[in-house]
Please model this.
Amino acid sequence: MGFSPHKKIQYFVWDATHGSVRAVSPEAMPDNIPLISPDARGYLSQGPDRLWYVHPLQGGDPVRVPGLSEHDIPINWRSDGQALYVVTHMDENKKLQVALLNIKTGQRSSWKEIRPMMSVDSVYNLRITPDGRSYAYNYSHSSSDLFLVNGLK
Model:
């Protein structure tokens, strides 16, 4: 990620063998880290229009991913490269509903509900391995003590 000649965010690929850099996205991309596909031939990112696309790294037009909305948070690719692990943002973040989304059809299927074993304030920063066998997340938890004093003078 860097800045285009017009001072807008753009994604680039560096060829270490040849010492060259080339743009692999249009200008005015969002300031986020794209998800590289398992075969390393493309990446998932929102475009300048805030819709989701798979952008090919070897050139060509990006392909719109159906079924992803602005409220979705793609977490990772599934190892076959045909689906994404996706969380839909909710106003209450005490659990995470994770779905698998087919990148060609937009079909969504429930994968797992992630909920800590204790009461928490929020759950965030979910990461899932491509094979789906492991995942990790952060959570915040607050606790306090209330003392009641009677007869204090």
